[in-house]
Design brief:
Helix content of chain B: 40-55%
Shape of chain B: elongated
Strand order of the largest sheet of chain B: 11-10-13-8-16-17
Radius of gyration of chain B: 39 Å
Number of strands of chain A: 20
Strand content of chain A: 15-25%
Number of helices of chain B: 33
Structural class of chain B: alpha+beta
Largest sheet of chain B: 6 strands, antiparallel
Strand content of chain B: 5-15%
Helix content of chain A: 25-40%
Number of strands of chain B: 20
Oligomer: heterodimer
């Protein structure tokens, strides 16, 4: 493959001087088992960085970015009439309306585009983590080999933007929750090897802890500990027998960790460096803090960052009851920080080379479960007449017509792509988008050719299954 | 035609490029040749002719470059090759002109400039040659030239077409070929199709609606009709297309090179002879022999060990000498790590070094192999990876996955014969069915991931080194396996006949039931149960050499750092020593499939004991041309490293996810039952109180009363009103003698427990008391559902016997999984091994960073290179930091200011050696005069990260 040596070299010389070139192995080949058949020519890129704002749990499009007829709550309301439980509001783009509670994001839509026609795969009986796995890897689980997360592909193909910022950062999701094992299954570099795995920051407010010397260790102590180590290595009799790849990789990784933990860039992980008013604007909770940390890291040179609203069964966007009230809270959680993130990146000029994507594993509906025409098991009871507000909202899983938002890096400004029906089923009626197209669009913008592949256990593995899916060039200016 | 009506002109000129290029080549090369003839001033008469050649050559080079550029513009050419060819073509034209200019300059200014002119001409011709070569690569394919080299043989080159033709030429006059000949003819034709046509005309691609993989497809033809009429090759479409000029659009193959004349003749012959289709499946790729052929041992008297005999012969062939074996210290470390996964204790190393018995190495191996517990707890990781068995992971929440730990642990600790293991995995009991049951995800899955197919894939990969994954979607492109075979095998596990799906699309064809190697036996039965019985019988037949070679190769890899065949899952690849592999596999079968015997066999050889070899990169180690010179240097596995740290520093893990002796000590985790909104919730923070009354028969005398107690997070234990012990670290069970506290008749145990934290979180109390009486009998008193509890602070002396707890509630038993099986919750505590083996704990971020795989898929070799994430986990991970801190604290308590003893012990424990003078100085200096926890901690950190600690050398 054509690797990113030029990236590394350029940033490197700028940041640290050539003496440590050998120390940086993220991206530089540690000899790998992976072999690639073709070496596709490098394509031009329009972005360096991707920020994924992940709405975990299934965000209903009709309650957020694609509102339909508003049915205000009243006792005895016919469930069939419930398409949206909020009124529409205007956005910065003419004729583009959002659901109430998303005013701030609405105000930055003149800087980005909305896809209203994403259709999640039909994986039968709905399981959130299975669809999330599919969204993040583009492969449906289970697979006979483990496919990499989209962030791991970026780390592997492009390496880090800034050598001291890990290329694949995942924020906001803990794995101690229900379905935690299923979540772990796709937060993985899969066959690309642990080297390209995610750098996990479950709690953005403690992000700094992951990149500084252990608690209670002074810089001086950290230095002398490292010094002692280096000296002992030199004196070990094992040294007489020369050095092999294993020692090389051990030494290199230790040196790298030392650099990272000691580097001034580590400050980027520290939210306390932000002025109070900025912090407050973002701070709607862990998700908001994640957006702020993502902004800091994007400016410092991150490759891929995901910020999740955190998936926990029946919490967050996973509304099985009280859909209306909970959607209101979720919108309050995301609206301000996301809009601020876009504004800040735009002002500092970083939005030119950064793609921000907002997406969810699937959408929801008040009545339909699954995809139109494909009946799956109802997960919750929905009465015909709503007598209690807890039945007011989108409580069932629906896989079509989901919204995806994109900003930056040459995405057309103010574009509305695709359409959904105004009556139930509110499914996509125009320009239906599938997951492999989403991935290929992102890879296209990054300059990763669609024919990129590795031979795993004798079979070619592409970034998307069989290399399918065409980049949606209509999204790009 | 609008808009580009002149395009045809450009196209026309562009296509003159391949014609014109021959002029500069011819002219300039001849010019150079003639120029060489004029060296040393000879043949001056040639000079004028050369000038003309150079004028014409340069002019034609310019013309060729221009035409080439036009061609590039109008035709669809891309890629590095074109770019380079273009660049060099233009450079040739420029150099040609330069040569003309230098030549004229020389003609005017005199022959002292002859050298410049000649160099320029030479440069031009060199550039021209390379440009020409690249151009040829463009039109004929990059490997047009190099593929003729014998070392670039892709294993197939026209196959046996020539031989067959020669053979059949003799008989072709006669009426009929024999059936055998027809079969061979057909297979050869199919091989030609496979290598030249499948890329487009497979079941998968079906270009032009043509499939050449199957009889049906070949006979049916494609878009343009039938390929041929049987008996009439001459007028057939296929032969016509194969014979068309290569630039004809209809010429076949569309990609790659044209078929050789012999190949076309062979296809014609096949058509003319009835286009017979052989029943046999086509074997395009090399396949290992199924049966094992045990070789005779070479008669090498100096080497008594069979492996050494075989390897001495190997070394001789490779012009090597058998090197000397490693010293005792290195050997004992290796042997311990390979059999038990643990570092040897310092005393053991010293005793072994001092032992003068000539047989001591063999003895040590025997002794280690008889340590069933540690052998099992080390090799468990290998088997868990291989059988993708784990204590947590995807599939468990919805019941879509089942552990086989119980079965596996027992199989290893009783050293179950391998053929029995395989039988029980393929025809499982309830305890071992998790392997073939697969992992079931909720919802619709890809047909190639049905659990039946998973069973077929996993058995093939893990047990027989066959990759069935390609062929479970479509006929494999990298092996001879077909979709039909995969389904035939998967169908064994299915209770209804499976429909064959190709690339997740139904084909309408129903699958047969067939083992991958029908020559070993057929599976014909109605029920799954019967099919599995038959399968298990067929699988373990000694004739199934694949099964035994595969495990032999895996074990060799574990011990030597590289398989005899690589990759380990591709057992059709060529071994670097076929005799060695087959001899070991045969020896394994002859010795009752005894895995420990195989370990002993290999480890007692000199070959195992040779110095380890460093490799500059993994590729060099895994290379096809690998030559054995000694075991490869390995890195400790995640589990070996964690256990080594547990031994040298402080326990990394205290509790096991799997308890091999579940009832060894009675006692359940109990706590107050917390209910909110009619639902059980996790215990809230705060104090809870527990009581339990019991009787000691007055007829018995207590000899000893030992209790074990722990609580998450803290407890105080009272016996009959008196405080006995307290604790605040649930990982560390308190063992306490209660003889003094107890009395005959009624007694009461009272415990004040506390759950810390801000939010509800797991809490539990675990207690067990063993009463040993003088008459030799024993009684146990332990925490169970009969204990009582309350959450309100009792007012009176609630710890005393005479207290009324009638209003207290019964306790709730909490799932022990929260804590696992605590190593120290045992009356026979082993001071030497006060930690839980890492192979027995749930996957966690620490082990994951160190390379323990998530066992959703079979893993047969781990990546053993260090990574940044790993180094970060070790450098600033809180988990590891705490282990080091704990180790430093206890070390300081033991050695205090005695730095010399401290570093000596540390090095002995870690490396089995004393530190050098130099090392001592360095370490004592780092520790300072009065070392504190931080200094010791940093020393521990530096020690366990040394390559000498991390590697098996």
């Amino acid at each position: 493959m054509h690797h990113h040596t030029d990236y590394i070299r350029r940033d490197f010389l700028k940041k640290m001087g050539a003496a440590t070139l050998s120390a940086m192995s993220v991206g530089l080949p540690t000899s790998s088992f992976l072999s690639s058949c073709s070496s596709p020519a490098r394509m031009p890129s329009s972005i360096d960085t991707v920020i994924l704002l992940w709405m975990a749990g299934g965000m209903a499009h009709t309650e957020t970015f694609d509102p339909k007829a508003y049915a205000p709550y009243e006792k005895g309301l016919d469930s069939k009439r419930v398409l949206s439980t909020f009124p529409k509001i205007p956005t910065a783009v003419d004729d583009l309306f959002f659901s109430e509670g998303l005013e701030n994001i609405g105000s930055v839509m003149d800087k980005g585009a909305i896809i209203r026609s994403y259709r999640a795969a039909d994986l039968g009986h709905i399981l959130h983590t299975r669809h999330q796995y599919h969204w993040h890897t583009c492969y449906e689980p289970p697979q006979s080999v483990q496919p990499p997360h989209i962030g791991a592909w970026m780390g592997k193909e492009l390496g880090p933007v800034n050598p001291v910022i890990p290329p694949f950062i995942s924020m906001g999701q803990r794995f101690t929750v229900g379905e935690g094992e299923e979540l772990k299954a796709f937060h993985s570099a899969g066959f690309l090897g642990t080297e390209f795995g995610p750098f996990l920051i479950p709690d953005p407010s403690t992000g700094l802890d992951s990149v500084r010397p252990p608690q209670g260790m002074t810089t001086k102590r950290f230095e002398s500990r490292n010094q002692l180590y280096q000296e002992l290595v030199k004196r070990s009799p094992l040294e007489e027998h020369g050095s092999g790849y294993q020692k090389e990789s051990l030494m290199r990784s230790m040196e790298q960790a030392y650099r990272l933990l000691n580097s001034p860039e580590a400050k980027a992980f520290d939210l306390s460096q932000e002025p109070k008013e900025v912090y407050d604007t973002y701070n709607t909770g862990r998700f908001g803090q994640g957006c702020l940390l993502a902004r800091r890291l994007a400016r410092e040179g991150a490759r891929f960052i995901s910020v999740s609203t955190e998936y926990e069964p029946f919490l967050g966007w996973d509304t099985h009851e009280n859909g209306h009230t909970r959607a209101e809270k979720m919108k309050a959680l995301i609206d301000r920080p996301i809009a601020q993130l876009i504004k800040d990146l735009d002002e500092s000029g970083h939005l030119d080379r950064t793609l921000v994507v907002l997406a969810s594993e699937f959408s929801r509906d008040a009545i339909l479960e699954g995809r139109p025409g494909e009946k799956v098991l109802d997960q919750v009871d929905q009465p015909d007449q709503i007598e209690d507000i807890k039945y007011y909202g989108m409580h069932r899983h629906f896989t079509d017509g989901c919204s995806i938002l994109m900003w930056g890096g040459g995405i057309k400004k103010g574009l509305v792509y695709g359409k959904t029906a105004d009556e139930r089923p509110c499914a996509s009626t125009e320009n239906t988008v599938m997951i492999d197209q989403v991935h290929q669009t992102i890879y296209h913008m990054l300059g990763i050719p669609p024919e990129t592949e590795y031979t795993i256990e004798g079979r070619p593995f592409y970034t998307t299954p069989d290399g399918h899916g065409e980049a949606i060039l209509d999204l790009l200016a | 035609m609008e808009g580009n009506s002149f395009l045809w002109i450009a196209e026309f000129f562009g296509r003159l490029h391949p014609l014109i290029v021959h002029f500069p080549i011819g002219l300039l090369v001849v010019a150079l040749f003639l120029e060489i003839l004029t060296l040393n001033g000879k043949r001056p008469g040639l000079r004028e002719g050369i000038s003309w050649l150079i004028y014409l050559g340069a002019a034609s080079a310019v013309l060729a470059a221009v035409l080439g550029y036009i061609l590039f513009q109008v035709d669809d050419y891309q890629g590095d090759l074109v770019q380079n060819h273009q660049l060099l073509g233009i450079l040739t034209a420029i150099l040609g002109l330069l040569t003309v200019w230098v030549m004229r300059f020389m003609q005017k200014k005199g022959s002292q400039h002859l050298l410049y002119y000649r160099s320029s001409l030479l440069m031009t011709v060199i550039t021209l040659t390379v440009a020409g070569h690249l151009g040829a690569s463009l039109t004929h394919g990059e490997d047009f030239l190099t593929s003729t080299f014998p070392w670039n043989d892709d294993g197939y080159e026209k196959g046996n077409a020539g031989e067959l033709l020669a053979e059949f030429a003799v008989v072709s006059d006669k009426a009929e070929l024999s059936t055998n000949q027809k079969d061979r003819l057909n297979l050869e034709v199919r091989a030609i199709f496979a290598h030249n046509c499948y890329q487009c005309h497979s079941e998968l691609k079906q270009k032009g609606e043509l499939v050449l993989e199957t009889e049906e497809g070949v006979m049916k033809g494609g878009e343009s009709g039938k390929l041929f009429t049987i008996g009439d090759a001459k007028n057939s479409e296929i032969i016509r297309r194969l014979k068309l000029p290569r630039d004809d659009e209809e010429s076949m193959p569309g990609k790659g090179k044209a078929l050789a004349e012999e190949e076309i003749k062979l296809i014609s012959l096949w058509i003319d002879n009835g286009a017979h289709w052989a029943d046999e499946s086509l074997k395009i790729f090399p396949e290992a022999q199924l049966a094992i052929s045990k070789p005779e041992l070479p008669s090498i008297a100096d080497e008594p060990h069979p492996v050494d005999k075989l390897m001495t012969a190997y070394f001789e062939v490779h012009d090597q000498e058998m090197p000397d074996v490693v010293d005792d210290k290195t050997f004992i470390r290796r042997a311990y790590l390979d059999i038990t996964g643990l570092l040897p204790n310092p005393e053991e190393v010293i005793a072994f070094e001092q032992n003068t018995s000539p047989d001591k190495r063999n003895q040590l191996i025997k002794t280690l192999l008889s340590d069933d517990q540690n052998y099992t707890q080390h090799w468990l990781s290998f088997w868990n990876d291989l059988l993708r068995n784990d204590y947590s992971g995807t599939g468990f929440i919805t019941g879509g996955r089942k552990q086989i730990t119980n079965w596996l642990y027992e199989a290893l600790s009783t050293n179950k014969p391998y053929n029995m293991m395989v039988k029980e995995l393929t025809n499982p009991t309830e305890a071992s069915e998790g392997f073939i049951k697969g992992i079931e995800w909720r919802g619709v899955v890809n047909a190639s991931q049905r659990t039946e197919m998973q069973a077929a894939q996993n058995i093939s990969q893990s047990l027989m080194g066959i990759n069935l994954k390609c062929a479970s979607c479509h006929n494999s492109f990298v092996s001879n396996l077909t979709l039909k075979q995969s389904y035939g095998f998967a169908n064994v596990f299915s209770d209804s006949t499976m429909e064959i799906f190709r690339c997740d699309k139904p084909t309408g064809k129903m699958s047969e039931v067939q083992f991958l190697y029908p020559e070993l036996g057929h599976i014909e039965a109605e029920t799954v149960k019967e099919k599995l019985i038959q399968l298990s019988e067929v699988m373990v037949k000694p004739e199934n050499g694949r099964l035994y070679r595969t495990i032999t190769n895996r074990i060799w890899d574990r011990l030597m750092g590289r398989g005899i065949i690589e990759p380990l899952d591709e057992m059709d690849n060529t071994p670097w020593n076929a005799d060695l592999l087959d001899w070991l596999a045969a020896d394994f079968i002859e010795n009752d499939y005894d895995l420990k015997h195989m370990l002993e066999r290999i480890m007692t050889s000199k070959v195992y004991q040779l110095p380890s070899i460093n490799y500059s990169d993994v590729a060099a180690l895994k290379d096809d041309d690998y030559e054995f010179t000694g075991p490869a240097r390995r890195r400790l596995s995640a589990e070996q490293f964690a256990d080594a740290v547990s031994k040298v520093v402080a326990p990394v893990y205290y509790a096991m996810a799997y308890d091999p002796e579940p009832n060894a000590v009675p006692g359940a985790w109990i706590w107050y039952r917390e209910i909110e909104l009619e639902r059980d919730i996790l215990p809230k923070p705060g104090k809870r109180f527990f009581r339990y009354e019991f009787n000691i028969p007055s007829a018995k005398n207590i000899n000893a009363a030992d209790a074990l107690i722990t609580a998450d997070h803290a407890f105080s234990l009272y016996i009959n009103g008196k405080k006995a012990v307290e604790g605040s670290n649930w990982r560390k069970v308190k063992q306490v003698k209660l003889d003094e506290f107890l009395q005959k008749g009624a007694n009461v145990i009272a415990v004040e427990g506390e759950n810390e934290g801000q939010i509800p979180n797991p809490a539990g109390l675990l207690f067990s008391l063993r009463l040993s009486y003088e008459d030799g009998s024993e009684d146990f008193v332990y925490s169970d559902e009969n204990w009582k509890t309350t959450k309100t602070q009792p007012q009176q002396a609630w710890t005393a016997l005479n207290f009324d707890d009638i209003a207290w509630e019964p306790v709730k038993i909490y799932n022990a999984e929260n804590w696992g099986k605590l190593i120290s919750f045992s009356f026979n505590q082993n001071d030497d091994q006060n930690f839980a083996r890492a192979s027995m704990v749930k996957q966690d971020p620490f082990l994951k960073a160190l390379g323990r795989p998530s066992r959703e898929n079979v893993t047969t070799s781990r990546d053993n290179q260090a990574t940044l994430l790993q180094a970060l986990e070790l450098t600033n991970g809180e988990f590891f930091d705490n282990v080091l801190k704990e180790g430093a604290t206890s070390m300081l308590a033991e050695y205090g200011n005695d730095r010399d003893t401290m570093v000596n012990e540390l090095y002995f424990k870690s490396f089995g050696r004393k530190p050098s003078e130099d090392e001592i100085n360095l370490m004592t200096e780092a520790l300072g005069k009065n070392p504190g926890v931080t200094e010791v901690q940093d020393l521990l950190w530096a020690t366990v990260l040394l390559p000498e600690f991390q590697f098996i050398y």
